[in-house]
Structures are given as structure tokens and as C-alpha cells.
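Notes from the 1:1 (GR / supervisor)

We went over the backlog. Supervisor wanted to see one worked example end to end before approving the batch request, so GR pasted a single chain during the call. The sequence is below; no edits were made to it. Supervisor asked that the structure be written out right there so they could see what the output format looks like.
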Amino acid sequence: MANLRGLLGKEFASTVADTASQYGSYSKVRDGKVMNFMSYCNMTNCEDSYRHYYMQYWCVPCGTTQITFELWGGGGSGAGACCCQQGVPGGSGSYARKTLTYPEIEGGWCYCLVVASPTCCSQCCCGIKGCKSWITGCNLSNLCAEGGTPGKTCCYAFWDTTYRCQDRIDWGGDSSESHIDGTMGSEDGKGGFNRVNDCSCYYGADCGIPGRPGFFRQYNTANNCWVKLGMPYPAKLIDDMGGHIITSNRGNACSHEYSYCRGTTPWAYSANCNGGPGIPGVGAPSATSCGGSCCYGWRGGGGMIKVTYCSCWIGINRDCAFHFCN
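Structure output shown during the call:
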């Protein structure tokens, strides 16, 4: 006759060794259940706003034997502009991935999840670094995905023939120089970020992919509308390594909310949401000014945390099976 433990199934925290000896190797019930945690919109900046709905506590369901945390940092804001300034969008947030397997993870343990918020809008000609996403809890050490590099504006950037018909302008120097040198080559720089050497980093992960700076292209210095903006997006969302969304500069449209909205399709945000939640971790456009006006650079997008957890439950506990299979 079956005993009560056999009818109810096996609890991993207390009987995993006994279960393994009786039933042999484990097999997953399914690949996993997924929970996505997104940033909220229209909040204050980074450190000040993490407790305004960005900090959440998540507890591991009973029976979980493997969990994967994936984190995306927030995007850098565009830079502000005055007089006749234009420039480079903010950079993308980094991506980090960490997997824990029993006994590194057990049901009932709780983790603090902090999703990167959107940045504030930037008035300065150097934008705001993107906010970071992180997780704390048992068997994690400094698990963090940094936010993207700030955008940058300079006087007459879109009108200067120096930059016409170059591949990508980031004002960050060539691959052998530091981020304060050069534009595309060895010319003295304007404080941009190099797309080879400069990035947003990740920490405490099994693997990850850095975020990259934005850029612009200019084909005709007679009209700002010819400018194409390269707004970077992070890895593991649209494709494996991340890349750039190419969108048109909106002439002298100041804050370029329409460039940002069109550029973040298919997860385009509502214009009333003030900077999120479009595609997580996207760098935002810098402002365009002409004739003495001043404009703010657009908010850097918020980040994201994805939790995937699964069970190698061997017993016949119906509650556990219902949770993981439905």
C-alpha cells in the first residue's frame, strides 16, 4: 500500500537524496514558467525612484529546482541642446544572465528585484547615464546590468561637412584610443563614447553582453531631416547581440519624442508615458536646437528583469504539477 508521502509527492528541500535513489535521474516537467518585470513610466531619476514600484520582492515557488535571472539595464538619455546643437543618442543598457540550480535554489527563498527606471530628461549637452537593474538574494553576488552611456550634443554637428557621409559618428575616437579622443579617427574629440571600447557593463553573471553607444549619420548638411539616428537596443530582445534602430531625425523637432516612438516599434510607448516602457534599455535621441532655443534630451528607456524557473519534480504532487504545467 502506498504511504502518504508517495501519494503527495516528494519535497525537494527535505527528500531529494532519497527521491533520487528511488527514482533515478531527474526529468524536467517543462522548460519553465516565465515572469517579466518591466519599469514604470514618468517617475523620478534612478536612485531616487527605485522604491517607487521598481523594487519588488519575488519568492521561489515550492518545487523549483532551477531558475534563470535575465537583466537589462536602462538606456542612456539623449543630451540637451541650446543655440544650434545636435548630436548622438544615448547608449543601450547591458544584458546579464545568471542560472541557479538546486541546492543553490530552493522553494520559499525570496529575492529583491530592482528594475532600471527611465532616466530624467537632460538639459545638459551631455546626457544622463542609464539606470541599472540588479537582483540580491541567496547565492547571488553583485548581479547587475548597468545602464547605457549618455548622449552628447555639439554645436553645428548636423551642419558640419566634417561628418558628412561617414558611416557612424559617435565622437568616441578609433578603437585604439580612449573615449575622450577623436571622432571616427584620430581627430581631437568632443567627449563622446567609442563604440568598440566604451560600453555599459554587467557584473555577477554567468554571461552577459555589454550595451553600446548611439551614433548618427548625415548625408546632406543642408537639412537636418537627412540625418539618421542610430538608437542602440540591448542584446537578447530583437536579436542575440543587440544593435541599432535606425530612425529619421525630425528636423528641428527639439525633443524628438516622435523619433523615439517610431524607433521603438514594435513596443512603441504611449506619448503620455514620458519615456517608457518601450523596448527595454534603448538609448534615447538627443535634442536638436536651432536659432537660440533650448531643448531637453529625451529620457533613456527603463530596463527589464526576466525570471524563468522550472522543476525536475519526480513525485506525483498534483498542486506542483498544476503550477508548472499550466
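Supervisor's comment: The radius of gyration is 23 Å.
Batch request approved.
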